[in-house]
Amino acid sequence: MPATKKKVVRKQKARDLGVDVPEPERGCKDPNCPFHGTLSVRGQMIEGTVRSTGMDRSVVVEREYMHYLPKYERYEKRRSRYSAHAPECLGISAGRQVTIMECRPLSKTVSYVVVAVR
Ligand SMILES: [Zn+2]
Predict the structure, then answer these.
(1) pLDDT for position 68
(2) Fold (topology level) of 41-117
(3) How much distance in Å is there from the Cα of 98 to the middle of ligand 1?
(4) I need a labelling partner for 30 at 20 to 30 A (CA). Which of 12, 39, 45, 76 fits?
(5) What are the pLDDT digits (tens) for 9-55?
(6) DSSP letters spanning 63-101
(7) What is the dihedral of CA 39, 44, 50, 54, to 10 degrees?
(8) What distance in angstroms lies between residue 86's CA and the mean position of ligand 1's atoms?
(9) Distance 27 CA to ligand 1 centre (A)
């Protein structure tokens, strides 16, 4: 049988995070990417909106939730912000709904990483 030369297109293999999130379509060289680097995720999974992309490879994610006040028998709106690492392969822009997941502290304020864009 003649040896056929196959051109191998190497798609960067994404790691399985163990959580139900889609694999990113692009690859990246970020060592702190949970899919293409060595960063592991664990703990909390939070959904929110990207409010700021001004930082270098980090974004601000805001989450809104209702808090019950027993005295008035009503709810009040509360919001909290998280600084999260944003791997390049996800192509994150402001205003997008994202899922972030807890990871080891990457800096003084960043201990979450974006794992999915909706
Ligand atoms: Zn990546």
Answers:
(1) 98
(2) OB fold (Dihydrolipoamide Acetyltransferase, E2P) (2.40.50)
(3) 15
(4) 45
(5) 566 788 888 889 999 999 999 999 999 999 999 999 999 999 999 99
(6) EEEEEEETTTTEEEEEEEEEEEE--GGG---TT-EEEEE
(7) -50
(8) 9
(9) 5
Rounded average pLDDT over 62-77: 97
Cβ–Cβ under 8 Å, residues 92 and 26: no
Eight-state DSSP code of residue 20: S
Tokens of 49: 């909106």
pTM: predicted TM-score of the whole model, two decimal places: 0.84
- Between the CA of 33 and the centroid of ligand 1 the distance, in Å, is 5
Residue 23 CA, ligand 1 centroid: distance in Å: 9
Q: What is the enclosing helix (H) or strand (E) of 42?
A: strand 41-52
The answer to whether 66 and 80 have CB atoms below 8 angstroms apart is no
